[in-house]
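thread: overnight batch results

M.L. [08:02]
morning all. the overnight job finished for the chain we discussed friday. pasting input first so we're all looking at the same thing
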Amino acid sequence: MSAKVCVATLAALLLLGVAGCAEEEGRGHVDLVYVEWDREPAVTYLVGEILRRGNYNVSVTSVSNPVMWAAVAAGEADAHFSGWLPSTHGSEWEEHRENLVDLGPNYEDAALGLVVPAYLEEIQSIDDLVEHAERFERLIIGIDPDAGMMQQTAAAIGRDVGGLGVFELVEGSDATMTAALDDAVVGEEPIVVTGWDPHVKFARHDLRILDDPYGIYGESEAIHTIVREGLADDKPAVYALLSAIEWEILEDAVQEIMLRSSEGVQTVQAARDVADEYYEEIRTALPDEFLW
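M.L. [08:03]
and the structure it wrote out:
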């Protein structure tokens, strides 16, 4: 399915009201989109809950990475909080930048790469991984194929960077990758996954992002808030909020939502509960007009 068709489908879903957490009409409608990458749902639902309590009608919709960027660029969604820049999503940003506004990082010093459990003490780098490829059955357990780091990994395998051509990249999702990692850790078995931090797996397990001497995944990145061109004119209060949030103060609340979601609580419910329990922290991170 092309990104254009997917954007049209997303628009239809939003009009039908099947997306996310929609409330009765108030100050207006806000459409947020995200990808299923652990922190991104938590951030998106928390912002959605803040807007909802500010009397906005909010839709929160899970989509693929290409559709997320295309939907915001096409004006079918207002914002996403999943822009890994400058490298991982650099091509998506360049493709759509004329129709997007970058409001800056909502998380600094994000890292991604190939990840192994810390009990594999001899595997410190990509070179070590290649040397011991047979122990891993020559498999790298990945996530959804449209993810930027999957494309980076696939390209490195295809070009045999550092000898990675001996590996096969297994497509899946954040959930299937995490489940495979959980199972392997129980028996202290060898496993290598495509991974990133922040992610709840780093709270659950002692893990290591492998040294990347070939620069496959670039330097440390930041996760950016991306909004559609025209949002400042159409919905100035929403634009002001997304521009003014002090994200570092919100991070404890985001981490708590991530943890509860990993334990089986629906993310929308976790965001509602955390918004109550972390109210004092949240109020210091928001402009006064958005306090409830």
